[in-house]
Amino acid sequence: MPLPLEGVRVLDLTNVMAGPYCSMVLGDLGAEVVKIESLEGDTTRSFEPKVNDESYCFAVLNRNKRSLSADLKSAQGREIVLRLAARSDIVLENFRPGVVKKLGIDHEALRQVNPGLIYASMSGFGQTGPYGRKGGFDIIAQGMSGIMMMTGHPGGRPAKVGIAMNDIACGVTTLYGILGAYIGKLRHGTGQYLESSLLEAGLAWSIWEFGAYFGSGEQPTATGTRHRRSAPYQAFRSGDGYVTVGASGEKLWRAFALQVCEKPEWVEDARFRTNALRVRNVDALEAEVEQVLGCHPTAYWVERLDAAGVPGGPVYTFDQALADPQVKARRMVVDMEHPRIGPMKMLGLPVKSDGALTEIRQPAPLLGQHTREVLRELGFQDSEAAAMLAAGVVKAQA
Questions:
Q1: CA 100/CA 107 separation, integer angstroms
Q2: Signal peptide span per the entry (predicted)?
Q3: Is 306 a catalytic site residue?
Q4: What pTM did the predictor assign?
Q5: What domain count does the chain have?
């Protein structure tokens, strides 16, 4: 059975994280992705660690793609993009706003050669507004979306989320925009231009905080691991580490107090009788709970939580997370052979299905690995490709 995007052609002009994540998932869904890189390559090709001089981080993020390396500032580089756009269904770019217009490869230019194109732009702040020409990185967007001020522990310095959250959020947001636009094209026959930003994508994920702010004027601040609306719902210190507990709602709270901790007095305690009271008195609740949980290791409490039907789990280091039997059973770490790295690990597919939906078909490409191949497909003669290589317009693997 073919994958859903098999036969769909994607021209990927993106770099670093947000765009490459989006195009990677399009490739996982079956699309044919041609990644245009500068002569120096995607910025993440320089990221450590490297194995046999290839970045492991780049390799994890750029599977299911072909690489063509070209100087987009040259007339011939622009011609390559135009020819690719003419045969593509989707184009992605995440240059600083205004750059693609200077290069002559903006939406208006590419629409001249392909009116039905779906063209997606990603940027730090969007293509319009007072910051419409400003570049931005993940940490800038985390700061300006308010996320850093609500992350970390009370009274501490603003904290960055441990992963590149706004980058990934922008990649995912753009992905559903592209898929929606593609479905629209299948139904109505027209392509379209769409754009998103690191700032907006991050803001779009602040659902509860948005509701509380406009509902009561509440300013979301850092709460550590605590939930703003429910308690106990956090990580508690155990005898050998931390254990998470999600005892939200009265039924789970009673099960936690009576069956897990064997503390019936908590149920009758005036401070903890309702969820609202438990949230209001969360400092006292935490102290009571940790006095009990500190008597035994995390594994002991996870077993008791499971037996009582109360959601809970260990707080892992990353290596522990990857080694967990559930993660292994769900194949979130898979093996792949890379042409230069050799045997390597790849993040698995997070969506499972009973049909053909996503697949890891090929490893990340070497810089310019497919330059000659793609130029030939675009109608360039071998002599023309050789001349461009000699002139430094394109780069290819030997």
A1: 8
A2: none
A3: no
A4: 0.96
A5: 2
